[in-house]
Design brief:
The structure is a single chain. By secondary structure, this protein is an alpha/beta fold. It has a domain at about 45-140: Glutaredoxin, CATH 3.40.30. It has helices spanning about 30-40, 55-65, 70-75, 80-90, 115-140, and strands at about 5-10, 10-15, 45-50, 75-80, 95, 100, 110. Strand 1 (about 5-10) and strand 2 (about 10-15) form a beta hairpin. The chain is globular.
Amino acid sequence: MAGMISFSACGGIAPIKPAVTAKKEKPTWISESQLAARLKNPDKKYLIFGAAWCEACAFLRRAIAEEPIINDAVDNINLDEEWAQRNAIRYNINVIPTMLVLNEHNDVIAIRTSAAQIVLYLLLNIELQATIYMEQLEVQ
């Protein structure tokens, strides 16, 4: 089918279907223009490719939402959107959820492809760094 891409998700292959809505919570997905603006930012970026119909993605969104520091740092990209599918092809993403970590030059410096790996990576790289930074401030 034209315009449809299949991604491995939640233990199986499922085609991406346009205009699918989440049954449980409504995730905050970034738009194409928000991603373009984000990519101009010189900071490290955490891009999570997922879909509303993916249970592992829903688990991941709930886990991230519980940690405000992490939630603020992550950008969720909805693969139900055609523009997002083009970016998935660009980055060779074929399983969801997938997180790309981009450096200040937008080079991919890390890839994680399961909810558990993504949460662990984010906890170690954002939450821990924030905790260390706050402790250093208290010492000064």
